[in-house]
Amino acid sequence: MKRHFYLIAGWASLGLGAIGAFLPLLPTVPFVILAAFCFARSSPRLETWLLTHPHFGRHIAAWREKGAISRKGKIAATAAFAFSIMLAAIFAPWPWLMIPVIAAAVTGSWIWTRPEG
């Protein structure tokens, strides 16, 4: 039963990561890292696929070894946050526009405290 839960959670995380590639406030790499965590507990084949993936494999390995996020990843996350805040400033009424501002401040602060891999 646990294996099925982790397998479903892994696919859901991977799906959210894919969506995050197109939506500015939804991150991609953290969901792929979560998918690797879930697949490690449910499907060694899928975990290996993620670990050897040419784009995501090194990010997963850096996170597992040192809890590290690359400088490029940090800058990309900050740019995505800025874009989300600009969209909210244009389309969202007060006080709703503060949601991406708060999310960017909290999450961005945490991201920049991580070591660089």
Structural write-up:
The chain has helices at residues 2-20, 29-40, 44-51, 57-66, 71-91, 98-113. By secondary structure, the chain is an all-alpha fold. It has two domains: 1-67, no CATH class; 68-117. The protein is globular. This is DUF454 domain-containing protein. Pfam families: DUF454 (PF04304).
Keywords:
single chain, 117 residues, mainly alpha, 2 domains, 6 helices, 0% strand, DUF454 domain-containing protein, transmembrane, DUF454, transmembrane helix
What is the secondary structure topology, with strand pairs?
Elements (H helix, E strand, L loop, with lengths): L1 H19 L8 H12 L3 H8 L5 H10 L4 H21 L6 H16 L4
Helix pairs in contact: 1-2, 2-3, 5-6
Protein name: DUF454 domain-containing protein
Organism: Sphingopyxis fribergensis
InterPro entries: DUF454
Concise account of the structure shown:
With 117 residues, the protein is mainly alpha-helical. It contains six helices and no strands. The mean pLDDT is 89.
